[in-house]
Amino acid sequence: MAMQIFMVRKANGTQEPFSEEKLLHSMKASGVASSIQQDALKRVKKHLYNGITTQEIHRSLEVLINQEDPRAVGRFNLKQAIMALGPTGYPFERFVARLLDEYGYTTQVGTVLSGACVTHEVDVYAKKDSREYFVECKYHNLPGTSTDVKVVMYVKARGDDLRDRLLLEKKDPHKFQYEPWIFTNTKFSSDAIAYAACQQIRLTGWNYPQEHSLASMIEEKKQYPITVLSSLGPDHRRTLFENNCVLLSDVTKKGSACERLPLPNATRLELEKEVNYLTHE
């Protein structure tokens, strides 16, 4: 008897066949134990139906994983935690800057650079070794939203203006150049990817490129956003954002602005306990 194929409705409205491999991969990447993975997969498959949404599957898994390993559920909810950096894009810009810091870049948020024609406010200015980047951060608070080719073309135009300024100053544009780099918390359209490849513009999306995606960059350094913390309320979250505390490591770092925040002792202890639980194997 042929195995029934169930269609899953994605956030953007399209459908695809249910994939055991994709589900197991997402749990494995979150640090969920193999025994829990198989049990969760069996229980999810019992409730499949044609047209089930990815959100329904995610919620079911979240409940199951939380029962067995609360530490893993924080990582499993990582994509939703990045979405929770909104509603504005500014916390996402700070998050990208702090993440790049962990990779050895020197960063500044909200820098103004002069082009040949106009000035440009850059979301994140990043420098490492002899290379300088102007980073455009495209935050979306709805899953399934793509960063399209118009954004990449806009960034290309800004890069050209910055490069032309260097030519006016008689600087070698190959030695002194602001390289464009676009981060998004969702995905890029196929045209955006094609145009960026043609124009040599660096892209980092949630799962793109596969080897150096935003998700993999976060997991590699275990630099999770504070929005994964279940013990952190919206008011305290806002206070931490305002003090440039966007990573879990910021919460417990000695001498940081986070350490000096007027948080109740019980809240601080609960935060530290949850941070240690999430960041240690």
From TrEMBL:
Pfam families: ATP-cone (PF03477), Mrr_cat (PF04471). Keywords: ATP-binding, Nucleotide-binding. InterPro entries: ATP-cone_dom, Restrct_endonuc-II-like, Restrct_endonuc_IV_Mrr, tRNA_endonuc-like_dom_sf. GO terms for molecular function: ATP binding; DNA binding; endonuclease activity. This is ATP-cone domain-containing protein. PROSITE patterns: ATP_CONE (PS51161). Coiled coil: none annotated. GO terms for biological process: DNA restriction-modification system. Residues 6-87 form the ATP-cone domain.
